[in-house]
Amino acid sequence: MKIAVLSSHTTSLFWFRMDMMKDFIKQGHTVIALGPEPEVDWKRKFNEYNIDYRQLCVDRNGINPLKDLRTISALHNFMKKENPDKIFTYQAKTVVYGSIAAKINGISEVYPLIAGLGSIFRGAGFKNKIIKAIMKIEYRAACKFSKKVFFQNHDDKNEFIQKGLIKEDKTIIINGSGVNLEIFKPVPLPQETVFLFIGRLIKDKGIIEYLEACKEVKGKHPNVRCLLVGPYDSNPTALKKEELRPYIESGIIEYFGEQSDIRPFIALCSTYVLPSYHEGTPKTILEAMAMGRSIITSDAPGCRETVKDGLNGFLVKVKDIQELAIKMEYFVSNPDASRTMGAESANIAREKYDVKIVNKNIMRIMGII
């Protein structure tokens, strides 16, 4: 069969869905991946895994209706020409417009993944309210035109059901994107206490809370290291360079920018921290767990699924800098806890989040094994 995988973020497509696409190919299927970045930058990288990459006209964060119409048109033309047997799509715009374009072309085998509802869907304010109302209409249509819809946590699934966007018998829960246990393996912890945050530098990821908690912890324990890995972003809530600069210049944060391989940085840390406001299921947490790290994350949709509070880490209230700092200080005062909780994280990753198990479930639902 020919399977199309659609995303409005090429980097995410390459790093977060590669294991799944490789498993599709192992089953004898052809995969075409569509994302917004130029083919000249990405086609060769995808070709190395026998995946055909095509550039898609899609503005991930924009709200210009003319650009969105161009996205629908581009998807319609692609599907009319290629006629894929099945479509897997994730991220808001490609979920919505991919499902609509498939319907226009008479393709019913569409399987969206709702990997978190994002800042617009959960945000406040008049403008946000209008956009959210439009998104509900679009999501309702996307779900109607799809065969099954994957969710990574029960909070998001229940919200879709309660708002009448989908019927429960169309929903499937999967354990995040999974983690490749052959690549992410337990490694020894550092001797000192080291905290790490990995993610796009947007406020909804809890970056401000992390920076401020690090400032408080470093003020009491100067030898503690606080690491930060991740790119600046075009999201409306993105952190600006001038906002991060004081934390770097004062030595509170060691910033390493965007990295293609995050394993060396997870190996440097003793505890992984992600105080996000909402997620699908954060892949970086799963990767840190697989490498045997204790976790501090928010008691928020998608995040709370990864931590058994007090067993492999701690859950903290969303936007609560003080509680986050207290939990970070716990690991400073109790260094052995990083080791014991990290071991529990590795156990949970093996039992629940093995990418082979997650992908097998996806393929079973899609009818490709």
TrEMBL record:
- Glycosyltransferase subfamily 4-like N-terminal domain mapped to chain residues: 3-153
CDD domains, per database record = GT4_CapM-like (cd03808)
Q: Which Pfam families match?
A: Glyco_trans_4_2 (PF13477), Glycos_transf_1 (PF00534)
What residues does the Glycosyl transferase family domain cover? 187-344
User: InterPro entries, from UniProt?
Assistant: Glyco_trans_1, Glyco_trans_4-like_N
Annotated PANTHER family: GLYCOSYLTRANSFERASE, SPORE COAT PROTEIN SA
Q: What is this protein called?
A: Glycosyltransferase family 4 protein
